[in-house]
Structure formats: C-alpha cells, structure tokens
Amino acid sequence: MILTPTLFFMFITNCQREESRGIRNNSMSISPQLSLLGRWLCAIALLIPSVASAEDFTVDGIYYSTNDDNTVAVITNPSYYHGSVTIPSEVQYNNQTYSVTSIWNRAFQGCNEMTSVTIPNSVTLIGDAAFYGCYRLTSVTIPNSVTSIGVSAFYNCNRLSSVTISNALTSIGERAFNECISLASVTIPNSVISIGNEAFRGCYAMTELSIGNSVTSIGEHAFYGCIALTSVAIPNSVTSMGEYVFAGCTSLTSATIGNSVTAISANAFSSCVALTSVTIGNSVTSIGEWAFGNCFALSSVTLPNSVTSIGDHAFYACNALTKLIIGTSLTSIDSYAFADCMRVSEIYCAADIPPVCSLDNVFERGITSTCALYVPEASLEAYRTAEVWKDFFKIEGHDFAGVGALTNDSPAAVYDLQGRRVTTPTQGLYIINGQKTRIK
C-alpha cells in the first residue's frame, strides 16, 4: 500500500471522528487500544518515506489532491470557496488529465459565501462534513454517479431548500442533512438501502417525504422533529426503525408502517400530537416503550395478530383514544401502557388467554367502570378472574372468528342477513363488505 499524504489525512480524520462519536455517546466506537495503535502507526508513518506521494495543486480556484489511479479529489481551499462553484469532471495539470472522482472530507466546510455548487457525473463519493455549514447554499443536485454520502455531509446547510439525490446512492450517512431547516421535500430513491441516524433530524420545513422501496433500515432520530411533515408511509422493504425515528413530528396526521417491520421501537412516534391514524403492519411483534406516548389526537388503534407485547407508556396520554382492537397473539402489557387514555369506551381483545398486565395502572383507572371489554366467548371466565382485566365492570363474549372487525362510520353499504339494504342500522348482525359485522 502506498502511503500518501491524502491517505494519511483520511486516517487521522476517521480516528478523530470515531473518538468524538465515542465521547458523545459515552462509549468508544473503536477500542481504546485500537485507537492508540492507530495514532502510533500514524506517527511512525511520518518517518517512513512513501514510494509515491500525492500532489496538491490548484486549477481555476479549485484545490485538488491526486490519488494513485490518476484521479483526484477536491480538497479544502485554505481561503474558502466563494460564489458559484463548478467542479469539472476532468482537470489537466502538468500535461496530465485527471478524473475528478471524490469530494474529500470537509472540502467545503464553512464556506459561508458559496451560493451554489455543480457536482459532475464523475464523482462517486461525497466525504464526511463535505458541505458542513454552507449557509448560503440553496440547492444541490447529487448526480447518479454518487454511491455514498458521508457523515454530516450537508449538516446545517440552513438555506438548502431542495436536493436531488442520486439514483445510485446506497446509503445516506449519519446526520447527512441534519438541521437543513429549509429543506421542504425529500425523495429517497429505490437504490438506497439504509438511512443513517439523525440523517434528516430537525428539517423543520419538510412537508413531503417519499421513502424508496429498497430501504431496509431507518436509523435513530432519522426524522426527529420534522415539524411540518404531515404523513409518512414506510415501505414493506423496511425491517427495522431506530428509536425516536419520527418523534416530535408535531404536524404528522397519518402513518403507515409496512409489513416487514418487526418492532416499533421506543419513542418511535412519541409526541406526534396531531397523529390521528396509524396502520401497523402484520409483522410487528412488539411495540416499544412510549412508542405512541403523547399522541393526543389518536382516536383508534388496531394491533394486528402478530403483536405479542406492548411496552410501558406505549400509548400514554392518547387522550382522544376511544377504541382499541387487540389481536390474537398478545401476551403482555407493561406499566402505564394506556394510562391517561381517559376516553376509551371499547376494547376488543381477541387473545384466548388474557394477556399478563403489569399491576402499575396499565389502563386509566376511571375507565374500567364505563368501558366495554369484548373477549372471546370461550375465555369469558378467564378474563373475569385475571388481574387487571377483572376490574372491568362490563365484560362480554364476542365471536371474533365469525364477525369482522368493527369500523367507525363505515362508508360501505350495509345489508341485513336476508340481503336487504339497510340505511340506518341499529344493534345487531349485518353484512358489510361481504363480512358479517356486529354493530353495537
């Protein structure tokens, strides 16, 4: 391996970044021993003459550093870049033509007077903090040649209002667009597989979000505090979402969680105070603590048959919640899961065995005298003797196998059991959407 100044700088930069990340999280990302060894090797490297050296040069005001394969990277301008910057796809120096393939770490960091940048199709890599704090940058097009965007690449570009993301990009790095407070619309292409932690955190102006159907993981706090976002659809490709992923999105009214997500993480949608409806995919097995805590506008919740556990405070203070439908597989509900949900009037629990409830106020105490609890007919006695469930005054048997799930104000046509259209149904069994449905 040829040790060039550019590679040496890259090694130092990565060591510093890993150490700072470890300090921030109170845990080292790499072992202290490895970090110490890395610094020792870097020091020794300064004393060893390289077989070949990178050469830095300037053409038309842009600074470059050569790589070993006759390509160059755009590097930092000691006097900063100003105005409109156009990066060429090729550059000539000393009778040699070089292809421009990367924008190096911190290349444009703090270039407050740069108003626009054109990135050529030859660039495949945008490095860490490459455009960090470019306050005057208003738009950027990331060409389809780019496959990787580094950590904090566009962090705090607070006037950046539009971005076009490469169709070849496979990952969006941590904090890549963090605090781009003017960014209004984001389309994540189908090439992207992962969205890093805090990637779009604090993008306050974001009203539209489209997530491509190849994304498998969305990191912690990825869209935290996107206060203008009104709806989100998580595609079926996504298998994992980090904690606080959409927390504090105060204008979010609807969320659809795809059928491959297995767990709704802690605080995933906490304090989404305008959220009125959520569709939970049928692969979800657990709902984490505070997952929907303080979602004051959420009026009804249907938990699919795949859900086995509900964490503490999962639906705490969902003040508008009136109806709760629980699937067949639920086995446990933790402390305060539905505490301060004072308007719940109907609970349908399809589990044959009463789920084990924490004794710490799982349900708001005041609702047990007014809320109707519907359980499988064969399990009536079990619920009437089970801890917490036995506190409900009204427990009735319900035919979950033969009767479809109840809906509020269904727009579908209603027929009686003889096939006659009913315009104002009362209590009883009816045919709605081809299914028997009991209206209470």
Task: Give keywords.
single chain, Leucine-rich repeat, LRR (right-handed beta-alpha superhelix), eleven-stranded mixed beta sheet, five-stranded parallel beta sheet
Task: Describe the protein in words.
The longest helix has 20 residues, at 5-24. It contains 3 helices and 33 strands. The strands form 8 sheets. Strands 1, 2, 3, 5, 6, 8, 10, 12, 14, 16 and 18 form an 11-stranded mixed beta sheet that branches. A 5-stranded parallel beta sheet has the order 20-22-24-26-28, with no helix packed on it. Strands 23-25-27-29-30 form a 5-stranded parallel beta sheet. α1 (5-24) runs antiparallel to α2. It has helices at residues 5-24, 32-47, 380-385, and strands at residues 56-59, 62-66, 71-74, 83-86, 90-93, 96-103, 114-118, 125-126, 139-141, 148-149, 162-164, 171-172, 185-188, 194-195, 208-211, 217-218, 231-234, 240-241, 254-257, 263-264, 277-279, 286-287, 300-303, 309-310, 323-326, 332-333, 346-349, 356-357, 372-376, 394-398, 414-415, 428-432, 435-439. A hairpin with a 2-residue loop joins β5 (90-93) and β6 (96-103). The protein folds into 4 domains: 5-47; 55-229, Ribonuclease Inhibitor (Leucine-rich repeat, LRR (right-handed beta-alpha superhelix), Alpha-Beta Horseshoe), CATH 3.80.10.10; 250-401, Leucine-rich repeat, LRR (right-handed beta-alpha superhelix) (Alpha-Beta Horseshoe), CATH 3.80.10.10; 403-440, no CATH class. It is mostly beta strands and 440 residues long.
